[in-house]
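Hey, I'm writing a tutorial for new members on how sequence and structure tokens pair up, and I'd like a real worked example in the thread rather than a made-up one. If someone can provide the structure for the chain below, I'll link this post from the tutorial.
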Amino acid sequence: MNKPFEEPVKSVALKLPSADSLIWRTSNIDWQACDESGFWVKPLIEDESKTIRTWLMKIDASAFSDLHAHDEYEQIYVLSGSFYDQDSEYVAGDFIVRAPGAMHTAGSKTGATVLLFYSPE
């Protein structure tokens, strides 16, 4: 399977806390380029032992990713702008969840910021 959003160039994410709370000031995190042109991420949580990832993703206007799938559940919450796949266009406040292996495209005509959660089956 093609996986254009598997790993950002440089990971700066937090691990899941074992106690108390962790705070990450996302304005202090630089956007990192993905393998797919026009897609940028800010890794927030990456815990390999639990195979959980939480990212902010910014999609440039006119950016598009070909058909691909992920090995885990993908949850997408649109924070701003508009985001589309082969099925529909989504705007701020919309939520999408995909099963592991679900083939999909991704893109934005005008730009978007989304919150992504990846978790195991």
